[in-house]
Amino acid sequence: MTDHPDNGTIAPPARARAGRLARVLRGVAAGLVGVVALAVLAFVAADSDAGRRLVADQLARLETASGLSVRIGRIDGSLFGRMVLRDVAVRDPQGVFANAPDLTLDWRPLAYLGGHIDMRELSAPLVVLARRPALRRVPADPDRPVLPDIDLTLGWLAVDRLVLAPAVTGRAQTLRLSGRARIADARALVSADLAALGGGDRAMLRLDAAPDDGRLAMAASVRAPRGGALAALTGLKAPLALDLAGRGTGAPGTGG
């Protein structure tokens, strides 16, 4: 038997297998490029005028079990970042009970894929509450956790003028609202401030709560003069001045 030197050539079966593998890899690469291209096109199309109109129309079709729904006249900006919602109307089964001419939302919707609602800003120069909402009563779920099973970040909440119509508080009153919130890992961090414009109403809340661990830290302050917005909203007949502060622990799930 004569030995033939190895000249580096590939035998026909091996060459065929290599060719098939190369074709498969090229096919996979082409498929990935196609998927990415479609994703980019979908992203661009969704962030177009037509895409924003479609989102507004679809949102108008959604309604909670209690009958709450939202209508948006127009969306300006990016659906995937900062946008301004024009002519926002909040409805119950009886019709519109609140509206905002302009509502700014800065969020990162793709974070929801990781179980996180990420809102950097939710603000409005003006919100009008025309009447108290009349929502359908929905039975409470006794097994529902105290905190939602999803992370939530609200970096900045601001309403420069929250106008309460006479149907809400007996006479027109205007408040200013600001706050922020973070809910993650069964822990809620909330900061909120409310103040009347041209009145003595004030309210403040600082909350750090982990109900599953039975931990609670809170500071709150309320100033509700007679005839003010807070007295009308809560049904108080006498003025109220209240300051609370403390921290404690309790049985898990009870909140203290």
From TrEMBL:
TM region(s), chain numbering: 24-46
Keywords: Membrane, Transmembrane, Transmembrane helix
Protein name per UniProt: AsmA domain-containing protein
